[in-house]
Fold these 2 entries.
Entry 1:
Amino acid sequence: MGTTSGESAGSGSGAESGQGAVGGLAAGLFVAWFEEAARLVRRDRDRLTALDAAIGDADHGTNLDRGLTEVVKALGETPPESAAQVFAVAGATLIRKVGGAAGPLYGSVFRQMGRMIEEPVTLAGFAGAFEAGVVALERLGKAALGDKTMVDALVPAARALALALRDGVGAREAFELAARAAAEGAEGTIPMQARKGRASYLGERSVGHEDPGAASSALFMAALATVTAKA
Amino acid sequence: MAGVHEDGAGRGGGGVMVGLVLVSHSAGLAREVVALVRGIAGPEVPVAAAGGTEDGGLGTSLDLIEAAVRGVEQGDGVLIVPDLGSSVLTARLLAEPGRIVLADVPFVEGAVAAAVAADAGLPLPDVLAAAEEARTFRKL
C-alpha cells in the first residue's frame, strides 16, 4: 500500500480510543479515512481525469484532489471531536471546494452521514448513516443503479455493509467487503450507457468507459478498508 | 419586509419583487445573461449572476450562489435558474420550498421569462410558472 508513518500519525486522535475494536469506531478513524482517500485520489488523479476525459469534462481527478486536500486541511486545523463533526466538515468542504458535480454529490453523502451518525459509532450505526448518505446522493442527483454514476459503486458498497452486518462480521471485514463491492460496481459501469451528466450526451459512445465518479467512489471505500485494517 | 424595491412596488401594485439568480458553469455566460435579462425585462428586477468557480474557472461555487441569493432577496422569494450539471446540483442544495426555488428551464429563455414576470410584480409561484412556460415555447 505504501502508506507512510506520517499519515498514521496524522490520524492519531483515534489511537488512544481503540478505534480498531469492533463496534468502537472513533472520530480519528474517519479523519484517517479522508486522509487516505485524499492520498488515493492524488495518486490516481491522472487516471480519474483520463476516465473523465473519455466521457466527461476531464476535471474529476483535479477537482476531487483539490476538494479532498481542503478537507484534510480543514480537519487538521480544527481536530473534530465526533464522527458527526468529521462528516459535517468533509461534506461542507467538498460542496464548497470541488467546483464540479462531484462536490455537491459527495458533499451530500457526507453531510447526511454527519446528520445521522450517533456516538459511539458502531458498525451498524455507520452502515445506517452510510445508507442514508447514499439515499441523499440518489435524491440529489436523481440517479439510480445502472445510470453509470457513483451510485453504481456506492449502492453495492451499502448493500455489502448491510450483508456484513447480517452475517455478524466485524468492521474490518465489513469495510473490506464494501470496498470490493464498490470496485466491482465501478468496473461494472464500463458496459453501461450513461444517462446522467455530460456523458449522457454521448449516448452509445459512453459505453466502454468506466465512470469516473464510480471509480473515485471505489477509492473512497478502498481508503476506509485500508485505514480500518491498519487501526 | 425591508428593502422592497420602490419602483417594483409602483409597477407591480402589491410591492412584490421576486429575486432571480442565474447560475452557470461559466462566469461570463451568467454575467451576459444577466445583462440580456436587464435589457429586456428592465433594470429594476433584482437579478444576480453566480457563474463559475470562486477562482473564475468553469464550475459552480456554493458561496457565489449564496451571496447572489442574499443580494437579490427582498422578502418575496428567490428563483434560481441553473444551466447544467453541477449548477443544478449545487443550487438544489440551497432550495427551500416557498422561499428559494429552482426553475427547470432553458437558461436564457427561462431567465428572461422569469424576469419579465418578476418585473410585473408577480409572486414567486407565478414567476416560476412563467419560467416553466418558456420550456414548452416553440421558436419555430
Entry 2:
Amino acid sequence: MELLYSSCVGLLVACGVFLILRARTFPVVLGLTMLSYAVNLFLFASGRLTMNKAAVLGYSDGYADPLPQALVLTAIVIGFAMTAFVVILAIRGRADLGNDHVNGIEVNTATRNSGSQRKEQGKA
Amino acid sequence: MIQHLTSLPVLLPMLAAIFMLMPPCGKNLRARRIVSVGMGALTTVASVILLLMTREHGTSVYAIGNWSAPFGIVLIADPLSALLVTLTSFLGLVCGLYSCAGDDERGSFFHPLLHFLILGVNGAFLTGDAFNLFVFFEVLLIASYSLLMHGGDKRNTRAALQYVILNLVGSSVFLIALGILYGTLGTLNMADMAQKVTLLQGDDVYLAKIGGLLLLVVFALKGALLPLHLWLPNTYSTAMPVVAALFAIMTKVGVYSMMRVYTLIFGEEAGELSHMAQNWLWWLAIATIVMGAIGVLASQDLRKMVANLVVVSVGTLVALVAVQTVQSSAAAIYYLVHSTLVSAALFLLADLIARQRGKVADRITAGRPVSQPLLLGGAFLVAAVAVIGMPPLSGFVGKVWILRSTLDTPYGNWFWLVYLVASLAILVSVSKAGSTVFWHQTGKGDSEQERAHPAQVCAVMLLVLCTPLMVIFAGPLSEYALLAAQELHDFTGLLQDVLGGVR
C-alpha cells in the first residue's frame, strides 16, 4: 500500500510541476490543482497509513491519527477557494491580455508562426 | 475581559469586515468609510493596550476555545508579536484613512478587504501554531490578491496573475513542509516542535532538516529574498499605491516567520539541527541587498524605486536574522518598524506626487511642478533622509545599531562593505530622484491642478511624523526592542509560558 500511495503522490507532483512549467494559464491551473491533490494526500500520509482503524480513542486497540485529517480538511477548503480565484483570474487575464500566456506576451516563436499562419488562412 | 485581549487584534478586523458587507453599510460608501476608520482606530487602540500589557506582565498566551497548548491552538502575544501587531493595525488605519480620498471608489469592497488583510497579518504574527500560520497566510494572501486587482488595468492583471500563481505554488510547498515536520515531530505547536526537535534521532533528523529548509523556501518567497524576489518590484509598482503601502508589512510577515522558526524551533537548543539555515540566509541576504541596490539605481520611476528599497530592507533584516544574537535581533526589530513605516510613507508620497504632475506622473524626469511643493517636498525630504539612513532621523539610529551589532560577529566585514556601499547607491539615486522631481521643471504649474485631499495629507503626515518620533523616543523604543529580542531568544521561558507544566 505504501508503494502505491507514494508513487501516486509522486506522479501527481510530477504532472503538476510539468503543467505549471508550461506557463499558459489553463495548464497552470490544472497543474496547481494536481499539486494541491498531491499535497493533500501527502499531508494525510503524515499521520501514518493505517487500515480499518477509527479515530476514536478507547474503543479499539489502535487508532488513526485524527490531526492530519483535520489538516487535510482545512487544506482542501483553502485549496478550493484558491482554485476558484485563479480560474476567474485566468479568464480575466485572457480577456485583458488577449492571450493565455502567463507573461501576457507570446514568447514562443512556434506558436507565433502558427498564429500568423492561421491569420493568413483566414484571409485566404 | 482582560484575558481575551490577546485575541482582539484578530477578532476586531474580522468583525469590522463582516459588518461592512452587511446591510447597514452595504453599498453606502460613507457609512463604510466611517466604520472602516473607526474600527481601524479601535484595533490600533486594542493593539497598543496589548503592547503595554506585554511590557508590564510579559508574554501572554491565549488558548483558543480553552484547549490547552500542545493539542489546541494558541495565540502568543510576546513583546515582538505585540509590537508588530500594533504596527500592522496602525498601518491599516492610515491606509484606510488615505483611501477615503477616493481610492476606495475605484472598485468594490476595498474597506472589507483591507480589514481581512489586517486580520490575516495580525493572526500570522500572533499565532503559536505552525498550521495556523499557514491558514493565516492564506487569509492574508487571498485578501492581497483581491486588493492587488482592485481598480486595476492590463499591466495589473499580468502582475497579479504571476503573483497568485507563485504564491499558490508557495502554499503547496508550505503544506509539504508541514506534512514532513508533523510526520517526524508529531506536533505542530511551535514551542512543542522546538522541544521535540532536540529528541530526534537517526533518519528523522534529515527529514526534519528537509522540512525546515522547505519552510525556508516559503518564507523567502513571502519575504522576497533572492532569488525569489523577482515578483516584488512588478507587483508593488502596479498595485494601487495605497495597497502597495499596505503591502509594506507583508514582506515583514515572511521575515517574522523566519525569526520565529529559525531562532525558536531550529535555534540554539536544537542539537544537530541548530542554526541549520544560517549560512543559506546569510549569503542570500547579502545577495538580496546587492540586487535591491542595483534595482534602486536602475529604477525609472518613483514607485519602482520604493519597491526596490523594500527589497533592500528585506535583505538587511534577513542578514540580521542570520546573525542570531540578541543584539542583532533587537536592531532588526527597530529597523523593521522603521522601514515599514518609511516605505509605506514613500509609496503614498509617490502617489500624491504622481497625481499632481499630470502626464509625467512619477517618472524621474523633468516635468510640470507639483502644486503643493512645500508640503510634498518637505515630506519627501524627511522620508528620503530616513530611508537613506542619514542623521538625525530613525534610519540613522537603525543603521548605527545594525552596524554595531554585526561588528563582532564573523560575518561583520562582508556585511559592513555591502551594506555601506548599498547605502551609498541609495543615497545617490534617492537624492537624484528627489532633485529631479522637485527642482527640474519644465512648464508652469497650473493653479487649478488637483490638490491633495485633507485625508491624504493627514495619512501621509501621520506616517512621515513617525520617523522623527522614533528618534525622540529612541530610548524607550530600543529598550522595548531589546526586551522583545531577549524574549525571542528565551527558549525555556517560552516553553514554560506555552506548555506550562506539560513536558
